[in-house]
Design a protein that fits this description.
With about 200 residues, the protein is mainly α. It has a domain of about 120 residues: Helix Hairpins. The protein is built from 6 helices and 3 strands.
Length: about 200
């Protein structure tokens, strides 16, 4: 087995072990409710409140929280789920492409035989896949910085870019701003950009 496979296998085993231990031995964690006399007196002596301690977990009792409309929660979850699922599918497809191209570059016999690409072409394609992935991530981050809850950028091999933004509607100014971000970071023309909204 290759070294990377051994490392991945080790990490998977650690995660499974932690999951099993959590399942059998997991319980509710301890929290500070403000009634522990030793902790309270220590904090009083230091002149601090327990919320001021960096890294301290604070238990929040949500019994006073108003009931949120279940339909609103379902809509929010569905929209968030759409973006997460689409991003996962895109990343899976990109990972598969990268693996196939790396196999050609490494000279794996099966991969070379199955592909009509030369090593030089495979290297160019791999660099293009990496460049597109980086451009998509940058575009998504910059769009979210403009105040949108979520965004998904899909850049094809032909240079077309589809941008899907989580919003009820988009104004002409917002579409122009999004398109400007795409033009600058994906190095494409306006005619190759499609911007849509999903709420």
């Amino acid at each position: 087995m290759k070294r990377k496979q051994i490392i991945v296998l080790g990490l998977v085993l650690v995660i499974i072990t932690v999951g099993i231990l959590q399942y059998y031995y997991g319980g509710e964690g301890e929290y500070f409710s403000g009634n522990d006399l030793q902790t309270t007196s220590l904090l009083d002596a230091l002149g601090k409140n327990y919320e001021d301690i960096p890294g301290a977990a604070v238990y929040v009792n949500n019994s006073g929280v108003e009931n949120i409309d279940s339909e609103t929660i379902e809509q929010t979850t569905a929209a968030s789920g759409y973006f997460a699922e689409a991003r996962l599918e895109r990343d899976k497809a990109r990972s598969k492409q990268k693996e196939e191209l790396k196999a050609i570059l490494d000279g794996t016999n099966d991969a070379v035989a199955a592909s009509s690409l030369t090593v030089g072409e495979a290297q160019e394609k791999l660099l293009d896949v990496i460049r597109r992935s980086e451009a998509e991530a940058t575009i998504e981050t910059l769009i979210k910085q403009r105040g949108f809850e979520d965004a998904l950028a899909l850049m094809s091999e032909t240079g077309n870019v589809d941008v899907i933004v989580k919003a009820d509607s988009l104004s002409a100014a917002e579409v122009a701003n999004i398109s400007d971000i795409v033009v600058r970071h994906a190095n494409v023309e306006m005619k190759d950009i499609t911007v849509k909204n999903v709420n």
